[in-house]
Amino acid sequence: MRSSFLPIAAAVVLLAGTVSAQAASYAIDPAHTYVTFEISHFGTSTNRGRFDKKDGSVELDRAAKSGKVSIVVDTTSINTGFAAFNKHLQSKDLFDTEKFPTMTFAADKFTFNGDKVAEVTGTLTLLGKTNALTLKATNFNCYDSPMLKREVCGGDFEGTLDRTAYGMNYGIDWGFPKNVRLVVQVEAVKQ
């Protein structure tokens, strides 16, 4: 009985080592990561903007179907393509970047569809307030980068947030919507 136990124990140890080897850390690639937002403008057109500076990390264990993500966005880097609009967005009316120069998305709940990340649930901290936010994946993939010679994982994620939950109430009385569409295109390089 002892002799049959040893091969089984060895197999369990090897399998455990293989599974834990699947967990990996990734650094956000700022050249392939974009954080953008969209909000309706009087129901006529859509105002769009992006944040040019962001940093973060991802821990991903595809075997265990789990992970963590942390993305820090420099709100002073807001860019709509129009300087006057950027300045207003940075003002106390909206992002109040002098007082709150960053917003952070942190998540530790990953939902998978097969071997692909389907959504990430966590919290968004903006203007000193933290609320739950789920970003759904509209695209997810991992590939071996021929340029970096490392694995890269990422996708397109989107969600909707109620800006008034963060105290961003500017324009509500004029009919501006409270809901903002947040789109995060992210690629992260295995470390």
What does this structure look like?
The structure is a single chain. The protein is mainly β and 191 residues long. It has a single domain (24-190), classed as Lipocalin (Beta Barrel). Helix content is 14%, strand content 54%. The protein has two helices and eleven strands. The chain has helices at 2-20, 83-90; strands spanning 23-28, 34-41, 45-51, 54-61, 66-74, 78-79, 102-113, 116-126, 129-144, 151-162, 179-190. An eight-stranded antiparallel beta barrel has the order 1-4-5-7-8-9-10-11. A hairpin with a 6-residue loop joins β9 and β10. It is elongated and about 50 Å long. The protein starts with a helix and ends with a strand. 21% of the residues are buried.
Number of helices: 2
- Give a count of the beta strands, DSSP E runs of length 2 or more: 11
Q: What kind of sheet is the major sheet? A: 8 strands, antiparallel, barrel
Bulk shape: elongated
The H/E string reads HEEEEEEHEEEEE
Q: What is Rg? A: 21 Å
Based on the structure, what is the oligomeric state of the protein chains?
A: single chain
Total separate domains: 1
Distance between the termini: 44 Å
Q: What characteristics describe this protein?
A:
eight-stranded antiparallel beta barrel, Lipocalin, 191 residues, 2 helices, disordered N terminus, single chain, elongated, 11 strands, mainly beta
Give the structure's gist in a few sentences:
The N terminus is likely disordered. The N and C termini lie far apart (44 Å). 14% of the residues lie in helices and 54% in strands.
Could you give the topology of this structure?
Elements: H1 2-20, E1 23-28, E2 34-41, E3 45-51, E4 54-61, E5 66-74, E6 78-79, H2 83-90, E7 102-113, E8 116-126, E9 129-144, E10 151-162, E11 179-190
